[in-house]
Amino acid sequence: MADDRRLQQGNNLIMSKVESLESSMNDYHRHHHHELMGGEEVVVTVDWRGRPSNATKHGGMKAASFVLGLQSFEIMAIAAVGNNLITYVINEMHFSLSKSANIVTNFIGTVFLLALVGGYLSDSYLGSFWTMLIFGFVELSGFILLSVQAHLPQLKPPPCNNSTAVGEEYCEEAKGFKALIFFVALYLVALGSGCVKPNMIAHGADQFNPADNPKQSKKLSTYFNAAYFAFSVGELIALTLLVWVQTHSGMDVGFGVSAAVMAMGLICLVSGTLYYRNKPPQRSIFTPIAQVFVAAILKRKQVCPSNPHLLHGSQNNDDAFSSDIDPFLHSKKFRFLDKACIKIEDGSNTKESPWRLCTVTQVKQVKVLLSMIPILASTIVFNTILAQLQTFSVQQGSAMDTQLTKSFHIPPASLQSIPYIILIFLVPLYDAFFIPFARKLTGNESGISPLQRIGAGLFFATFSMISAAVMEQKRREAAVTSNKTLSIFWITPQFLIFGLSEMLTAVGLIEFFYKQSLKGRMQAFLTAVTYCSYSFGFYLSSLLVSLVNKITSSSSSSTGSHGGWLSDNDLNKDRLDLFYWLLAGLSFLNFLNYLFWSKWYSQSPSSS
Questions:
Q1: Can you name the residues that pair with 403 across neighbouring β-strands?
Q2: Using CA atoms, how far apart are residues 150 and 348, in angstroms rounded to an integer?
Q3: H or E element, residue 303
Q4: Report field, pTM of the whole predicted structure over 0.85
Q5: What's the pLDDT tens digit per position in 447-460?
Q6: Which of 275, 291, 549, 608 is the most exposed place for a label (fewest CB within 10 A)?
């Protein structure tokens, strides 16, 4: 009996220890692992071994600096390829100008579209760090394969020759296996870069936790500025030094340098492993969103209560969030989604399925996502203009006098560095001087709201295309009528204006999405959503080029003219200036469209 009592006491002691441990773990999970779509917030951070992170050892600007290093190196590597790719496709692969422009814009558009895949995989399955590491190596393999193809004559079409009967130069277009190798390499780079991009910003932001330490809020703001500064520095080096290497040492060496730079970025990422605060992946981020729509449809005949606090999940939120619920749920926008939160009282204690009953937090997240779509769509034409600066404007510069000194010529692709030179100076000046000044006038912590900032950028983008059209008309007239070649510096205004436009629109869009998203889940995916605008902008560029060629070619054939606006590889025969005027008109109409949607969004309580 004494042995039994001692055994029972031992068991009780063990159970007491287990209950104490469970209580401690529950406290930890309540603090570190809240489900956003279940009514609470996800704030999960662990070290590289999966243990709870330590605020004194992990995170902060020290950890974020390694991510900034990857961001600078990665953009350096892909910008050097993407911004001079049209020259390689025309001169080495022997595609036509319009086809080459479409190859480049489709490639860049695919990079940004695949950012959604990277964001989804990160938030749902892999986490930011592993997504960057895995797809960073995929991108590196693409750079290596491009370098190998550019170096080996067997993998490229033969050089152009003048053996045709009429004396014209004949160029054989890349086909079959040679074209396959090129596109496989190109889209390995697209897949890798697309999945890496959103995770660099998200993983860097994960190193700060304003919820635990208010001082981290300012550091997080500093990080976003530093991230865009790192992006601009990487672009600038790519468009000057690396493009110069491509021009003077060959594209094979240029692609090889991009591979080496990408490898340096991955080394930088891995070097910070011991310092990172990692947010483990959660379940599928789309499931809670789908549940809201399904529940709202199933309960479409229900009547919403007049008091939003009677909706399911509103009682579980803290005061700060509850104060936001009332005006948000009273909004007339997407009111039908509120029915997903109605709990049916039938006298039984049966728990409803999450596909029939959602929380107000779920509904709020879905409403925010839906409300942001028109704003995102309004920036597509802006990125179509960006596509012109990376394609036709490079060819425009190639048709001009690139000589700076007797021995130095400016590579036309390096003209794209002008906006980033402007950004390197404008972003710090904007933060140091304009924001404090505007804050006194508007009372807004950001000086002007992100929506106002985006609108200002879209307005200036129109003048970038007007400048491009005027200068191209002047260049063409000088070449055709006077046989003169204008200096390449004549087309710098369009790049300067666009630099200002990009500083306002691109940074404003990132800030807008960051401030409107709920904390916790979907950080990487919501960052990736901003890249969709780039993707659709470049796809729209390809569509416009094809449509303009088709329409103007049919019109020209009826009048006996030579062809469409962009049908030749000779800009002196093409009418690039008219295409620029068309884009200027579209840009202004898009600005008016944006004014409507930004006003519509601002009327929503969710924007407060």
A1: 409
A2: 72
A3: none
A4: no
A5: 788 888 899 999 99
A6: 608
